[in-house]
TrEMBL record:
Protein name: VOC family protein
UniProt-annotated stretches for the region Disordered: 212-241
SUPFAM superfamilies: Glyoxalase/Bleomycin resistance protein/Dihydroxybiphenyl dioxygenase
Domain VOC intervals: 125-240
Pfam families linked: Glyoxalase_6
InterPro entries cross-referenced by the UniProt entry: Glyas_Bleomycin-R_OHBP_Dase, Glyoxalase_6, VOC_core
Protein source organism: Streptomyces chilikensis
Amino acid sequence: MTSHLHALTFDALDPTALALFWAGLLGRTIGEDTGDGVTVLPGSGTELPLRFVRTREPKTSQNRLHFDLTSASLDEQKETVARALGLGGRHTDVGQLPEEEHVVLADPDGNEFCVIEPGNGFLAGCGFVGALACDGSQAVGYFWSRALGWPLVWDENEETAIQSPAGGTKITWGGPPLMPRLGRDRIRFDLAVDAGDGLEAEIERLLSLGATRPDGGGRDDGGRVVLNDPDGNEFTVRTAR
């Protein structure tokens, strides 16, 4: 019994507008609005749905995770950057060095992402969204490997990475030093478990792996159970529909 990563959830000042940005950038479509946020649908079986939910709080600090978008050539890298800027994105500074060849951008809400230069062997074969790059410890990489049933594909110098057995986007954690936590994470994992497996049993399994219940516990507005991973990152679990 293992949860699956149902979606990556973004807090958004305007969920529809932010969904349109990411759908346009990734070449995907938007699903029907069911009142549970606006979803950018996956274009293939290994791509992750993106869910955008409304918040009134503007972004005030750098996110602890971001997308690394891949490029097959320098022209393709330039085209991706131009498309992002045309959709409402902007250049942003997260401390990157002038000699680094990747381009750091932000979406209309300020969520950072990178457009990686061609020739990155680590992201080869991972698709356009090559990685979800996270700030996090080795322990949290081990936790998510066991929680999702995804094998470790990198584990060196306290840096870890996992990938679905089916391939696709890698999830990576950069190891120490970790960024300070300033308020609620704007991007979160949303897990789902098959109805026949039992939600409470899955929650107990995740707790046994190192998850914790946040102060106050309970459920979010969509009825999802809220937990924290070993690094204190909020995530949710619900029964699959």
